[in-house]
Amino acid sequence: MKKLITLAITAIMVTAWSAAAFASEVVVYSARKEHLIKPLFEAYTAETGVKVKYITGKAGALLERIKAEGANTPADLFITVDAGNLWHAANEGVLAPVKSATLEKNVPAHLRDPENRWAGLSVRARTIVYNKNKVKPEELSTYEALGDAKWKDRLLLRTSKKVYNQSLVASFIAEKGAAETEKIVKSWVNNMPVTPFSSDTKTLEAIVAGVGDVAVVNTYYFGRLLKKNPDLPLAIFWPNQKTSGVHVNVSGAGVTAHAKHKEEAVKLLEWLSSAKAQGKFASLNMEYPVNPEVKPDPIVAAWGEFKENPMNVSKYGEYQAEAIKLMDRAGYK
Amino acid sequence: MAQEITHNTAGGKPPVSRRMNIRIKSPAWFALAGALALVAAAPLLVILSFLLSPNPEIWSHLAENVLSTLAVNTVLLLICIIPLTAFSGVGLGWLTGACEFPGRKFFSWALVLPFAIPPYVFAFVYLGIFDFTGPVQSFIRSIFPAIGFIDIRNFGGVSLILSLAFYPYVYLMSRSAFMTQGRTAIEAARTLGLSPSRAFFKVALPMARPFIAAGLVLVCMESLADFGAVSIFNYDTFTNAIYKAWFGMFSLESAAQLSSILAIIVLTALVAEQKMRSRMRYTEAGRSNKTDRLQLSGPWKWLAFASCSMMFFLAFALPCIKLLQWGFEAIESDLGRYLEYGLNTLLLGLAGAAITTAAALALSFAKRNDPGPLMNWSSRIATLGYALPGTVLAVGIFIPAAWLDSTLATVFKPLGIDSSNMIQGSLGLMIAAYGIRFLAAGFGAVDSAIQRITPSIGEAARTLGATGMNMLRRVYMPMLKKGLFTGAILVLVDVMKEMPITLMMRPFGWDTLAVKIYEYTSEGEWELAAVPAVILILVGLFPVILLTRQMDK
Question: pLDDT tens across B74-104, in order?
Fold first, then answer.
């Protein structure tokens, strides 16, 4: 009934939230899913008494919303997945630089914006997963080598429309240049027996079903699947250990340029990077903490140590548009 | 005003001609319709305004590498979906609307139910059923062990999925046409000695054509706007490309260019539909309740039963079984939350349906009163947004809303009133956005119904002294009831299924079931998505059943 009354009132164009802003609240727009952030916000409110109001949605659409809202935006903090998305938000001018010793201490430099407009909060590695019954780990070496003839009709990838693959290809462009990268992507396309899949989970399930034998996925998708079904014949391989290192990406956040509760937003961001929040933030999604002080979840730690690519993740955003065009040209759907 | 109504001869002008004499001399109507059309067209115009600053570099990339694939894929899709939905929608609409056979009562509303299942849910359910390890492929392999992975993620698969999801548009529209006139006409034709099948093709079908065409236009638009299903199948259409251009390359111009191609395709379809209509006759909507249905005999009645059962199974029962199976695997402890999501979903649906149907009625009434090219074009432009992907439309709505807010602020600030975000992020704006998005659905249903009210009725009413609102209320409304209900069902269920606008524009605390489905499907967690999907279908059942019953009264 209360809802009905609200509806009746708002139908005559009255604001749904009160214009009076509470000093002790902070408003978050998040492209990270609700079930991965809600427990943290609840913990934060319990600890500080500050209320966290949040809304979730698609990264691109939320960014457009903040842009359209301009100086009126209610958003104080923008949380999103993928460094490319964070770079875009900074590039579109919706994030403000935050000078914070806490963030500098808690977040390694290559997982932060060089201009301090955003910081990574969790790390995921985009790595190779293979079918243990069909592939020996010594047959694997690098991402680039997945284009070799021996993987003909055995390589499965997620669609190029997903930003994680765009970031992977963008990092290649940053490292090797477009021409070399295009050759690699084309060789991958040649080795795929079926259309790329719409999600990492489906790609892994297809490996189990025997549609292909190797795939490139984010670590936490592998973790989730194994958690549900520990008997699957899947294993992780850390590629490029003798060369550039494993491609890592982040989920992260930045304070908006027109934040109404700027101080609160900075405090929340610092808290999310702190040792006490990091363990929870990462383990909720089986990711790696950004904070070097914090150990990953035992399940995640069991996948072993690896050398990661030290490239600053903001490069993924810089080369994203070029990566999309390159994948179009290479016929990577 | 000329008091002349041209009577129809074959190929002659329709009776609803320029000379129509039921004008209600009220500029208010016209202003209202104009305002509605303008508001509805605003987002599209905002998007198209980015065309003014083209980005030749990205455009040439698209033209070189992507565009031909998109065009071929999109055309193939429509070539497949139109006949599939036309055939199934009209056939089933005829059976339940005008015939009598075992199970007719049940099927007449049960065949609307697939409408409550969003296309993106169809997509992931059917992929699950046809998975390599799923029941179908396992069965095939048990007979032919040599067969490898059969991939249904191709244009055939996409067309079938979208046809299952969208045939109810055609079904609902044609069914209401057959119910209101088909039976009377058939009876007349039968007394003149035509066989039932000839009567259907010669009399009933031509009479229902404007309705069927309106339904098919909606199917086309929905297919063009679909993002969820095609992305699960990774099938490249304009929608994907628009998203990539906008949210990947941050090129609004290219997104606008692609959107305008979509708009042009739809405009062409709309004009073609109009051309088709202009050669048609509209006949009075008879009151057919007294007329007996066509009793199907012997084998025919079982054939009718079988075809209805088959459609019901494929488009509703089977997906539901699969969803329930997943849902039980992933059942969550806090189902209580879903009550709130369900309530939100229903409330938004009802509000959206009310506003949209009212707007559609006003628009088609104004068009009726002033049937000129101006009104025709403005109603076309007003409904174009339906073919744009939801997110793009949402951005197009957000930009003018934000501008309006800042304009209001400059007015209110000096007065010491804080009006920031009066419009943005308000529930009112979101419901208005639904109205803009789904005006086409409401308008199609209402407009086809209004077109069938012959001018002579207006004439008669006027000689009896009815005017303006009175005329609308006492003469038109009773005759339009079925059309309005059809439009209301379409919009209500459409709003409940809607994802992108809700995702982007909802105020805090207005999560819906569709939002939850998105959160899970975008991560490939289909089992988890099954829980909100099942609840969405359950919530959708209630209004669908209620309104279908209303229509049948």
Answer: 999 999 999 999 999 999 999 998 889 999 9
DSSP state of A124: E
Chain B CB within 8 Å of residue A70 CB: yes
Counted residue by residue, chain A has a size of 333
Restricting to A residues 176-235, those with a Cβ less than 8 Å away from any Cβ of B are 193-202, 205-206, 208-211, 221, 224
Q: Is A145 left (phi over 0), alpha (psi -120 to 50) or beta?
A: alpha
Q: In which residue are the tokens 């989730």 written?
A: A224
Q: What is the per-residue burial (b if ≥16 Cβ within 10 Å, else e) of A257-268?
A: bbbbbbebbbbb
Mean pLDDT of B199-204: 85
pLDDT band at B291 (very low <50, low <70, confident <90, very high): low
Per-residue pLDDT at A12: 41
* Cα B413 → chain centroid: 42
Amino acid at A130: Y
CA gap A70, A322 in Å, rounded: 28
* Surface-to-core class of residue A256, CB atoms within 10 Å of its CB (0-12 exposed, 13-18 middle, 19+ buried): buried
- Closest by CA to B256, choosing from B62, B35, B432, is B62
Nearest to B22 by CA among B392, B318, B458: B458
Mutate to test the interface with A, among B424, B505, B520 (most CBs of A within 10 A): B424
Q: Judge: B508–A54 Cβ closer than 8 Å, yes or no.
A: yes
- Which residues in chain B (357-386) have CB-CB distances under 8 A to chain A? none
Tell which residue, A171, A295, A323, A165, has the closest CA to residue A245. A171
A56–B519 CB contact, under 8 Å? yes
Tell me the residue length of chain B. 553
By the CB < 8 Å criterion, does A61 face chain B? Answer: yes
Encode pLDDT of B321-376 as tens digits: 999 999 988 776 667 888 899 999 999 999 999 999 999 988 888 887 777 777 77
**C-alpha span between B232 and B25 (Å, rounded):** 52
Cα A136 to the center of its chain, rounded Å: 29
Measured CA to CA, the distance from residue B323 to residue B439 in angstroms comes to 31
B75 exposure class (CB count in 10 Å sphere: 0-12, 13-18, 19+) = exposed
- Tell me, yes or no, if the pTM score tops 0.85: yes
Structure tokens at B482: 């079925």
Q: Judge whether A102 and A273 are in contact, CB under 8 Å.
A: yes
- Taking residue B553's Cβ as centre, other Cβ atoms within 10 Å add up to 8
- Scanning A258-317 for CB atoms below 8 A from B yields none
C-alpha distances out from residue B74 to A197, B235, B392, Å? 20, 10, 18
Q: What is the pLDDT of residues B301-327, one digit of tens each?
A: 999 999 999 999 999 999 999 999 999
Q: Using an 8 Å Cβ cutoff, are A101 and A237 in contact?
A: no
> Rounded mean pLDDT of A193-203?
94
Are A195 and B398 inside 8 Å of each other by CB? no
